[in-house]
């Protein structure tokens, strides 16, 4: 019985030693430390909010839409069709503790909250269905639109299509003024 106990302890010691080497010496260990250091693990384990979404600004919504578009692009290999972009990214706006009704608020420009069937964001037709590297750096992906229709799309450089003084999002995820 004592031999078995020593074998178990020796096995545990070897396993601990190998784990320490992996964690502190190998590139894989650096990746694990980077993930832990980023706060992603802690955020996933932290208590979640109350299941509501309240955009303080259009920038908040554009950032959320940017994340959903990146997720879509990563999984599909291209941006969604501009004529259906909201419908195609909507599932990627839902979080574990955020119901669909709340997630859909991300699609509505804050100044249009409470207005029936009004959204206020449009996708650049030039980006629809394209791979990000096929587009010129700085290309506008989404913009605050004068059209309030769902799935609005068009040309962000056409003054009649964008909201005067509005904000836009580039393919790199940078917020800019129109």
Put the structure in a nutshell.
The chain contains six helices and five strands, in the order ααααααβββββ. With 178 residues, the protein is an alpha+beta fold.
How does this model look, in words?
The structure is a single chain. Residues 38-48 have low confidence and may be disordered. It is built from 6 helices and 5 strands. The chain folds into 2 domains: 2-45; 58-177, no CATH class. With 178 residues, the chain is α+β, with helices and mostly antiparallel strands. Strands 3-1-2-4-5 form a 5-stranded mixed sheet, with helices on one face.
Could you list some keywords that capture this structure?
178 residues, 5 strands
In round numbers, the mean pLDDT is: 80
Helix content: 25-40%
Uncertain regions: pLDDT < 50 for 5+ in a row?
Answer: 38-48
- Computed over alpha carbons, the radius of gyration is 23 Å
Give the topology string: H per helix, E per strand. Answer: HHHHHHEEEEE
* Structural class category: alpha+beta
Q: Spatial order of the strands in the main sheet? A: 3-1-2-4-5
- Biggest sheet overview: 5 strands, mixed
Number of domains: 2
Let me know the number of strands: 5
- Termini separation: 77 Å
DSSP helical segment count: 6
Shape: elongated
How much strand? 5-15%
